[in-house]
Specification:
With about 550 residues, the chain is α/β, with parallel strands linked by helices. Helices cover about 30% and strands about 20% of the residues. The strands form four sheets. An eight-stranded parallel beta sheet has the order 8-15-16-17-18-19-20-21. Helix 2 (about 75-85) packs across helix 8 and helix 11 (about 330-345) crosses helix 12. The two termini are about 40 Å apart.
């Protein structure tokens, strides 16, 4: 049409080393973007010629470009605001190596808080192993430091400690029974609660803590998104457990404030959203758009390893009569998986101990026998961390189950996990090379934030170097190549999100999501990958972060 604007690219990124991860053209120099999509990839001169008077040019100055990174297992909506507002007693973020330091920080916060208001803090998972006291603080400790305020401290997602005022408001006393799938620790002499709560018992206390309002929830998501953008992340698979989180995402999307693509995994058990309420909406996996969509339904069989509640066949070393918690019995799991599978809602089942692995595989096999379906891409969250027998590997491959391992657990607390379950169960931990060679579909997930930051570069570095934060090389025979490691957070992760047609590689027609790195990860020592500086993160052709 006469007078119409020619379809010039909006932006051209040139003069870089573009690692496309695409077959046939693995390395280029430039990328052109238009309407949020890639419209050209190639040599700088060729791509720049496509530009018009209004095309923005970005000189990459020889920096390395990779596809935007995906973290396939995060708790961003829950933990983003916590990082902003809660008292920080995590030992990964400062010198918190004894109970006195924890109590000092709580007491300081209490002095700034009106009497009777809650003091809420977050610590690190398995912090009891690393503190000089070799234990968590208990109710008595918290009472001494914060006598006039109800107080709660979470140590990861699976252990919470409350003081007497907090327990009282929650109605927990010596007569309170353990909830199904949870445990209230009690003094062996008096039977009184120690204040330490495991798994579902935590919800009795957290349920009476005033919730953040909708505005604060959006601020928390935006805060956590910005942190992730700074590490080259352009897509997350976020586990959400209440309608307010879903609403916050939708409002951010409508207001133009959602700067990262988000696939929501809706928790349907231990959640403010029941299985019935989710299924009755008719939602199916993929509902939404390229910015915000439904990724599936999340449920948890066992407790967390960081709370020493993962469900194993063998007991924990220090508790010979205890082998973990069951949060969902097999019959409820079978029914929930089948109902979601029938409704077209992909399942993402949390399983950490080997007994829980087998429960999840059994549930999937029953559902697929009842209603066979190709390409369902059901997932097992945390599978691939340890105890991957040939039989379990074969069942994963045969049934087309996607494993979501979390090497961040090994990186930060692998030594504490080994102390809890023993060296034998940690042999060949995170056997990612073996799994890939066997044909297991996998994607990497950090289980962050709150525990530790969302940072696939840290995890990719650990896949390749196998060097952990606690200064040990863990199962070096399972080291991945740099290419394979990055694919867990690009091409494989896009498959895990049903998005391989639009993400994972830098090709014409795909979304213009990219991370620009200060160095080429293929040309530096493996130990340096975790420290790579992200110079720029591009989402939909727009620069969302720049160092």
């Amino acid at each position: 049409m006469a007078g119409s604007r020619l379809p010039y690219p909006d932006t051209v990124f040139f003069n870089g080393k573009v690692r496309t991860f695409a077959p046939g053209t693995p390395v280029a120099q430039a990328v052109a973007c238009s309407g949020g999509r890639i419209v050209a990839v190639g040599a700088s001169d060729d791509v720049r010629r496509l530009g018009g008077a209004d095309t923005r040019e970005v000189d990459l100055r020889g920096l390395t470009v990779i596809p935007g990174l995906t973290d396939a297992h995060v708790h961003l909506a829950d933990k983003g605001l916590a990082d902003m507002q809660l008292v920080d007693v995590r030992d990964f973020y400062g010198p918190v190596n004894n109970i006195d330091t924890v109590l000092t920080r709580l007491s300081k916060k209490a002095a700034e808080t009106p009497t009777g208001d809650w003091v809420v803090a977050q610590g690190s998972p398995m912090q009891d192993f690393r503190m000089k006291d070799k234990r968590f603080p208990d109710r008595v400790d918290l009472d001494a430091a914060v006598p006039e305020h109800p107080t709660s401290v979470s140590f990861g997602a699976h252990v919470t400690v409350a003081n007497s005022r907090g327990l009282g408001l929650a109605g927990i006393d010596r007569e309170t029974p353990d909830p199904a799938g949870g445990a209230i620790e009690r003094d062996s002499d008096t039977g009184e609660p120690t204040g330490i709560l495991h798994e579902r018992a935590q919800h009795i206390v957290t349920g009476v803590i005033p919730e953040f309002d909708a505005t604060a929830r959006k601020l928390g998501i935006a805060f956590a998104v910005q942190q992730a953008l700074e590490r080259g992340v352009t897509t997350i698979h976020d586990i959400v457990k209440d309608p307010s989180a879903v609403r916050a995402y939708q409002e951010l999307r409508a207001e133009g404030g959602l700067h990262m693509r988000s696939s929501l995994l809706l928790r349907v058990i231990e959640s403010e959203m029941s299985t019935d309420s989710v299924l009755e909406t008719g939602l199916q996996t993929g509902f939404g758009d390229e910015w915000l969509r439904v990724g599936g339904a999340k449920m948890s069989i066992d407790g967390g390893i960081t709370g020493r509640n993962a469900l194993f066949y063998e007991p924990y070393l220090d508790t010979p009569d205890y082998s973990g918690l069951i949060r969902i019995q097999q019959d409820e799991l079978d029914d929930t998986v089948l109902r979601c599978h029938t409704a077209g809602l992909r399942c993402c089942v949390h399983a950490i101990g080997d007994r829980a692995f087998d429960m999840s595989l059994e549930a999937y096999e029953k559902a697929l026998a009842e209603l066979p379906r190709e390409d369902h891409r059901h997932r097992i969250e945390h599978m691939g961390n340890w105890l991957m027998t040939p039989e379990r590997i074969e069942r994963l491959v045969r049934n087309g189950i996607v494993a979501i391992p979390n090497i961040s657990l090994g990186y930060f607390v692998g030594d504490s996990i080994r102390a809890a379950i023993g060296a034998k169960r940690m042999e060949r931990a995170f056997p990612l090379k073996t799994l890939l060679e066997a044909g297991v579909k996998m994607a990497g997930g950090s289980d962050a934030p709150g525990y530790w930051p969302v940072d696939p570069l840290r995890d990719i570095g650990a896949y390749v170097s196998r060097r952990m934060l606690w200064d040990e090389t863990l199962a070096p025979e399972e080291a991945l190549s740099v290419q394979d490691a990055f694919e867990l957070h690009t091409t494989h992760a896009s498959f895990a999100g049903f998005e391989e047609d639009i993400k994972g590689t830098l090709e014409v027609g795909k979304l213009a999501d990219m991370a620009v790195l200060a160095d080429d990860p293929f040309e530096i020592p493996a130990e340096r990958i975790k420290d790579l500086k992200v110079e720029m993160t591009v989402v939909g052709g727009e620069i969302k972060y720049q160092a």
